Predict the structure.
Amino acid sequence: PPPQIKCKEGKKYLDCPFLKNTLHFFYDNIRACCSNALGPIFFDKFSDEKFDLNHIYEVRKNYIKRINNNEYIDGIPDCCQNCFETDEYLKQDKIEDFENKVHRIYFQNNMSCNAKCIYCTFREVERGYKYKVVPMIKSLIKENILDKNALIYMSGGEITINPEFEELFGILLEYLNSTIEIFTSGIKYSEMIKYAFKLDRCNMVISLDSGCRDTYFKIKQVDSFNQVINNIKTYIEASDNAKNKIVLKYILVDGVNDNKDEIKKYIDIVNSFDVKNIRLDVDFEKYSYGLHKKIPAHYFELFDYFYKLASENDLKIQKCIQSEKIVEYSRT
């Protein structure tokens, strides 16, 4: 098992915004944190049962009460021990009372996908979706619990093929003031996403992972490279905002794209349609923070090369905290 995070400088109270104010609609439960970090579960094996807002708030308050009473090792609940962000939220003082507000939501209740990525963390998860989220979002809005500036992250599976996507996205755009972040394969074109780009209300992260059709197919196991490229160009042609709001991600996959030639092809294709933001990740299935398995030695050279090309081409790198933590751990 990975080593537990120890308190630093007397900090023993976990004042975590995920625990207090985040909702994650996961494929089989409703929880407080993203799937990579686990965290408290409000409803397990959730399937269209009553969505009890008071129950969620009571669960949150109970965790905070136990943290304040020093009932957890190092101030961190058992379900949070492997989280890569707890050290950031450990405080010296007890946690104050907090309101029943949601400041961040992750949508990941649909595990169906239009790609078959070989690095997918959820390959063995049952496809499809088990419950609807639109009624619950309407309830959060009606009860004035959803903050109008809430951070929204929509993924999956593939969020754009979720039967609720168009309606859900429309409700969020109308109610919120904030920008919505979508993690997508980019395979399915969406008029709603194009509309959001025109409003300058959408960030879209696409795991392209390649700069050519052959490498894309090896990783994604679907022949959709040209379709994704055409969709990106269509979004950009419809709204100049899209250039700055699309993030093209490159996940290093052992034995496939973990070399300089493939990275160069990827940078070239990024430059071909003038997208400004890129991101470099590792395969979380192999090198997750919880497993504490170090990345291969040659990855460090690839990270340096990736950053060098980004600098030379005036590209902004959007960093991923989990990848940064894995790389930092691997250097030790």
The radius of gyration is 20 Å. The first strand starts at residue 13 and ends at 14.
